[in-house]
């Protein structure tokens, strides 16, 4: 589903991604761990076209998302193709990023109607189903500010699902939440995992990683230092940097 090869990215002289290779199969969950500044968000943003890579390539569901250097030529997608591909990838941010002036229902209905030209009635029906799925059927008419952080994040997940994405990306979805609200959001993500949704989740929640990850990826300094099943990377890490990181977050 996701195939990332030799991806490099710099901001000025700062090398943020230094040759990333990663494969995620359909229905798999990859959990990405790593210290702050290791390039995790940049990697997710590159997959979703929010950031251009300098070299290497990324493909999602068989179609090219990233950029390919062929000889001296840098092959880039046109803006229209990018927008089309972006609708196939759901992105959930740390800070929810809901539209504050729209109700919960309108937040979810907006993208299918505007990006996919889905008939409004149909989009509303689908949104109601999604709200029930994240346990918020009674909040359709509320505004984001009237919800807790955990509820807002569940709306953000429903909004991402409304485009029926082939891939879901989560960037520290529970980092902005009070501790008592973390569980309700992780439960929704776990449900999605059990239903076979392909996901890449950046998180520091090790228990969650152990429970749902097919692959745990540990990044440091723009590189993947170690990757493998949770039982290997979390319980028997081979690299010193992985061990040092885990001893701090566990
Ligand atoms: P992580 O998500 O692992 O904390 P990021 O991918 O956000 O790491 O950032 C990796 C490095 O790239 C950091 O040093 C960060 O300051 C830098 N960086 C990220 N985005 C930009 C940007 N748009 N311009 C300049 N530097 C950036
Ligand atoms: Mg980040």
UniProtKB/TrEMBL annotation:
This is Amino acid ABC transporter ATP-binding protein. It holds the Pfam family ABC_tran. InterPro entries: AAA+_ATPase, ABC_ATPase_HisP-typ, ABC_transporter-like_ATP-bd, ABC_transporter-like_CS, MetN_ABC_transporter-like, P-loop_NTPase. Its main location: membrane. It is a peripheral membrane protein. GO terms for molecular function: ATP binding. Keywords: ATP-binding, Cell membrane, Membrane, Nucleotide-binding, Transport. SMART domains: AAA (SM00382). SUPFAM superfamilies: P-loop containing nucleoside triphosphate hydrolases. Residues 2-246 form the ABC transporter domain. It comes from the Bacteria. It comes from Streptomyces rugosispiralis. It is found in: Cell membrane.
